[in-house]
């Protein structure tokens, strides 16, 4: 039995013994993680959004929505969202931004080099994707777990997979037609996971930093949480791909690899809460309650 | 077969047929609900909280935490929270209020007629409580459903039940000791359901209106989302039991009875989404995603 297998067996043993001394706390797992277990988010996957309240960083998931991510990269490169606005903040649901004049053909901002029509990318084949499974039951998906840093679902046949609607998930708004999203209208989940949206709309990534600047926005008082007057719109200063920013302005972040030993230990740390405060160590875990640690890349 | 049984059979049939024409939409269910399916929330269960941004209404659950609710009623009657503050807003977690000087024996506000020590009320026997079950699997509890207007869990033996930590749940903060809560320090869930707290702390009710005034507060930048300076504290003007307010100031609300036919239809409407927008009608439902409709009692 090799070291990796022995480790896996010990993790499984710890998982079977709630409160077992071999289960670490979240803080202990992070403190003991190895540098190579952290993966820098490539600059062409990192979207940088600036609003008056602060900066929001988002990681794109081209493996799950290649056409949408390609369009979003073009739109960011064109400065498409600069001067547009956050138009909607619906309590316990989503914040959404785009063009306030999107419905007015004569006034709306042209998509220029970006495509006006994309296929729906609600899910994809599992082929070739790594998968760290969670064993706990889930209300919505036959299987849940993590792929490449994102929470994902899989169907019972293990043939299709999709990015889940958890808190902080980034999606591409659409109208009635399944293929009516372009990526120009984006939303972020700011409430309890609206998992009924899974496989009904294209999810393209997630917020990795600064979500509090979105989640604490005043709620819109119109239908669906849209702001009722233009003065309530929250202006977007700029959205750019990190790769398109001058190096001095380019944020660098790394996330704990969801296919590392420390991430498996983190899952066990969250399932069996060894922190002194817990009377009942829980012994269960839901996919959207698993933290996905991100940190600034150390200088030098 | 009586009318009620026939109706139940039709509902079961509709549930078995995703997108079946006999499944109503949420809007249709509410429009067709009968007046007697709505229950007015008694004034001695309704807590009225006023802050500068607006009014928040909370329903207490004495069946689940009788000692805590009794203490909260006494504290409200004494004006305990008037002039105290919201001290914490942690993103995707909770907002919490109480006495900024709680840790300073010489400066803290006395609890007077309220008790300084209460038993932990983390769960209770199921005896005598009505239960509307959800059939979908849940990550944290053997069974989930609704009792008396609240989302609840039950264990595998069906012997204990507890109020779940869903968005809007009201709980009583505690220190390390399980019996260290008094109800003077209260929190509201403002993020994805932190279900690992279930059976680890006493839950006492839920927000039924105005949660947006809490959930959109600026996040605290200290550890656990506590505000770092007293100027950031959000003052509480007043918290009273509706029963203690003059009749002219007393809000009256009614909620859809969670043990009514319309509530069962609402569950099916949320499980099988017949709204035109849905491509995949879902066919699944998680307990914290079930809306619990509340409306103002009609005058006269």
Automatic annotation (TrEMBL), chains A, B:
<keyword id="KW-0697">Rotamase</keyword>
<keyword id="KW-0732">Signal</keyword>
<feature type="domain" description="PPIase cyclophilin-type">
    <location>
        <begin position="54"/>
        <end position="241"/>
    </location>
</feature>
<dbReference type="InterPro" id="IPR044665">
    <property type="entry name" value="E_coli_cyclophilin_A-like"/>
</dbReference>
<protein>
    <recommendedName>
        <fullName>peptidylprolyl isomerase</fullName>
        <ecNumber>5.2.1.8</ecNumber>
    </recommendedName>
</protein>
<dbReference type="InterPro" id="IPR029000">
    <property type="entry name" value="Cyclophilin-like_dom_sf"/>
</dbReference>
<feature type="signal peptide">
    <location>
        <begin position="1"/>
        <end position="21"/>
    </location>
</feature>
<dbReference type="Pfam" id="PF00160">
    <property type="entry name" value="Pro_isomerase"/>
</dbReference>
<dbReference type="GO" id="GO:0016853">
    <property type="term" value="F:isomerase activity"/>
</dbReference>
<keyword id="KW-0413">Isomerase</keyword>
<dbReference type="InterPro" id="IPR002130">
    <property type="entry name" value="Cyclophilin-type_PPIase_dom"/>
</dbReference>
């Amino acid at each position: 039995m090799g070291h990796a297998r022995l480790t896996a067996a010990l993790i499984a043993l710890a998982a079977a013994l709630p409160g077992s001394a071999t289960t670490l706390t979240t803080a202990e797992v992070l403190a003991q993680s190895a540098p190579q277990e952290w993966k820098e988010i490539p600059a062409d996957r990192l979207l940088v959004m600036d609003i008056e309240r602060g900066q929001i960083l988002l990681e794109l998931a081209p493996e799950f929505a290649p056409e949408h991510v390609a369009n979003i990269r073009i739109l960011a490169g064109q400065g498409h969202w600069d001067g547009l606005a956050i138009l909607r903040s619906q309590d316990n649901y989503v914040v959404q931004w785009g063009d306030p004049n999107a419905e007015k053909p004569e006034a709306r901002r042209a998509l220029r080099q970006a495509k006006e029509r994309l296929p729906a990318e609600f899910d994809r084949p599992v082929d070739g994707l790594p998968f760290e499974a969670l064993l706990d039951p889930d209300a919505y998906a036959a299987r849940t777990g993590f792929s490449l840093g994102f929470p994902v679902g899989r169907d019972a046949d293990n043939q299709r997979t999709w990015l889940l609607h958890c808190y902080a998930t980034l999606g591409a708004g659409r109208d009635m037609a399944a293929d009516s999203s372009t990526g120009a209208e984006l939303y972020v989940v700011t409430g309890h996971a609206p998992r009924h949206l899974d496989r009904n709309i294209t999810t393209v990534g997630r917020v990795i930093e600064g979500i509090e600047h979105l989640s604490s926005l005043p709620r819109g008082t119109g239908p669906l949480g849209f702001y009722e007057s233009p003065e309530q719109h929250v202006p977007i200063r700029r959205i750019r791909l990190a790769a398109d920013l001058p190096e001095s302005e380019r944020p660098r972040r790394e996330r704990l690899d969801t296919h590392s030993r420390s991430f498996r230990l983190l899952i066990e740390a969250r399932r069996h809460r060894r922190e002194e405060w817990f009377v009942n160590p829980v012994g269960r875990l839901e996919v959207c309650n698993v933290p996905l640690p991100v940190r600034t890349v150390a200088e030098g």
